[in-house]
Amino acid sequence: YGANPMEVINNVKEKINELSSGLPSKTLSDGRTSQVTIVPFYDRTELIEETLGTLNEALILEILITVLVIIVMVFNLRASILISGLLPVAVLMVFITMKLFGVDANIVALSGIAIAIGTMVDVGVILSENIIRHLDEDDKNLPINLVVYNATAEVSGAIVTAVATTIISFIPVFTMIGAEGKLFRPLAFTKTFALVAALIIALFLIPPFAASIFKKAKIRKTSYYVLNGLMIILGLVIMFFGYWIGILLIGYGIVAFLKSNQKLTDKRANLINIIISALAIVFLLAEYWRPLGVDKSILLNLIFVSIICFGLLGVFVLFQHYYSKILKWALENRLLFLTIPTTLLIFGFYIMKHTGKEFMPSLNEGSFLLMPTSMPHSGVEENKRVLQQLDMAVASIPEIQTVVGKAGRTESALDPAPLSMYENVIQYKPEYMLNAKGERQRYKVNKNGLFELNDGRFIANPNNTNGTVLTRLDRAHLIEDNDGEFYRNWRPEIQSPNDIWNEIVKATKLPGVTSAPKLQPIETRLVMLQTGMRAPMGIKVKGQDLKQIEAFGIQLENILKQAEGVKQEAVFADRIVGKPYLLIDIDREKIARYGVTIEEVQNVLKVAVGGMVLTQTVEGRERYGVRVRYPRELRANPTDLEQIYVPVEKGSPVPLSELATIRYEQGPQVIKSEDTFLVGYVLFDKLDGFAEVNVVENAQALIQSKINSGELIVPKGLSYKFTGTYENQLRAEKTLSIVVPLALAIIFLILYFQFRSVSTSLMIFTGITVAFAGGFIMMWLYGQDWFLNFSLFGENLRELFNMKTINLSVAVWVG
């Protein structure tokens, strides 16, 4: 418990390798060797590596965008380098503290660093800009160290207050319990570490570095030429090895050379350097991000990224330019201006109250868990056939990597799965071929765009509509080439994992088999551990009679299909009673006539049908019980059982048909109980675009209305209760409703201690409410189909930026 999953997986793999050499083998008649091997069918290694690879790419893009904003908005290359240098040092400090505090570097923990980057940079921007302002206003030619000290002392209190309020705002995350606490507590730790690291660097490292960077050093002209020449030569050498960053160094060298010859003023040289740096960062963004898709040229991606980045930055620059005029108008028309934030607050509050609620947005695990069920009376052979048919149907989909089905359960009370409930673990291929680190990898193509295989053959490019997806192709067949193209594993019509799931649903429609909700292995295990069900939402019907529970569950099933937001095909009530049981009714009068006791008859049946362990075989250190019973052909049906002879003490053996009545009777396939009551489940799922909590509330209201109208009657002794992941949301809401106001109160106190004024603190504090309102309005806009619903270079912006309905979840409150 609490171990690192990646370490556990690697340890298991090492142990498997150790055992593999000792597994049995057999030499076949043709001379080949048949070796027993262990083949894992579900391995989270790829998921973990792909997730960390995706996050790593996102962090790189975020840092690049942050540096671009710093360069353009600060408009001072030296200050930009100083601020940007804060990020890697602070991140390294975070990893050191994570090691000391035992925080694993999982996706949630690393997301804390990503969230904190903006605040970390703000600290550096505030301090650096104040230092630049003090240097510009220094008419007395004070020593550089004194100027930097005065500038730092002036804003240090405000910086500490800002960082402290941000850290305090994450106290509610530390108080979370249950699944949400385990999930988000590492994020709170890493964000706190990042902010503290940024504060230390800003107050203790940036000032001395700023004093060195902004110091007007007197360098001899000859030395200046030599340094510029070396920079240009270094750039040429780097270009020779194929790295475009050499162009950047050459550009800096030429600008510095022209500046030293007084061909360029300091202001113009700074402008050119900023333009060169900004263009280089935009090119890097286009190269790493590829927003229009890897099948589009780098030029189109570069133009698109330039429009997005410089367009937004242009708006900020214009706002900065006209800010004084806007501020003047706002102060002159205070009442009119205050209607704007007031309107935002009202609109934001209204949206918050009418936003859908859910516990957690679904995470893409790269795999599905298909859990349909067959009829309770289906036998072993029928279930085996259906399971194999499901596996074959799913495996026929080109995007599927592996599929393994399971029926039955382990010898454990914690796994109450009947034979008719299947679990098909489905691993689908990532959209693009990945390398061992979980990152998209380029592969070699020829002039015609065909991928070259390591055996010399060529295959069509799946990125094109004429291309084909080969089901058996993996990265070992392709040749890695950083100048090549990405290999797409999905067909052109498959655009998301939802499309793959829809293909699975179509392929697995079999007679006598129910549909299944969309599930993933990890989230399903969490749901089953928390609720005992195999669906994110459901109803538990409790009572004393299984037939009554089943009948009421079927009534609820029919009602739930009418509820708004409920996926009709996913509604399923447990068919509890239906499994055939062999009932042998021993007639007491008849056995008394023959002088046979009930125990004697039962012992005969026990040995004949169930078998009895009579002895053990000893094979080395192993012991095996020897069970004796009738062969299958003599006990397979009731007619055969009737011919079993029961010995009589004084007389000939009597057939069982003379002593008992044998018949089939329907009974439960599985008996589940909670709180001393028998229980049955009614499972359901939500439609896309609906939130869990809202769907459950709609279902509750509909069932209650049916009860009030008399259409649904709850039998005496029966009760029902909604359960599922939405309960976690309700619990988290209760916790946050207590802790968030306390955190806000502490933040207010910190502001008061900084400014020593209630009115000033309240004025600043109102910014929190306006920011909350702005966030909810943006969430609402994301859910509107018309918002940014237009195409640029053939790509729809809503799809490009993954804009969809965002429900009010724990993740939203944490953000």
Structural overview:
By secondary structure, the chain is α+β, with helices and mostly antiparallel strands. Among the domains are: 5-39, no CATH class; 76-217, Multidrug efflux transporter AcrB transmembrane domain (Multidrug efflux transporter AcrB transmembrane fold, Up-down Bundle), CATH 1.20.1640.10; 363-431 and 496-530, Alpha-Beta Plaits (2-Layer Sandwich); 439-489, no CATH class; 578-668, Multidrug efflux transporter AcrB TolC docking domain, DN and DC subdomains; 729-814, no CATH class. It has 27 helices and 22 strands. Strands 10, 11, 18, 19 and 20 form a five-stranded antiparallel beta sheet that branches. Strands 3-5-4 form a three-stranded antiparallel beta sheet, with helices on one face. A hairpin with a 5-residue loop joins strand 7 and strand 8. Helix 10 packs antiparallel against helix 11 (245-260). The longest helix has 30 residues, at 45-74. The protein is elongated, with a radius of gyration of 35 Å. It starts with a helix and ends with a helix. The relative contact order is 0.09. The mean pLDDT is 85.
Main beta-sheet annotation: 5 strands, antiparallel
CATH level-3 fold name of the domain at 76-217: Multidrug efflux transporter AcrB transmembrane fold
**Strand percentage:** 5-15%
Shape: elongated
- The Cα radius of gyration reads 35 Å
- Residues in helices, as a percent range: 40-55%
Low-pLDDT stretches: none
CATH class category of the domain at 76-217: Mainly Alpha
Task: Report the structural category.
Answer: alpha+beta
Number of E strands: 22
Q: Give the number of helices.
A: 27
Tell me the CATH superfamily of the domain at 76-217. Multidrug efflux transporter AcrB transmembrane domain
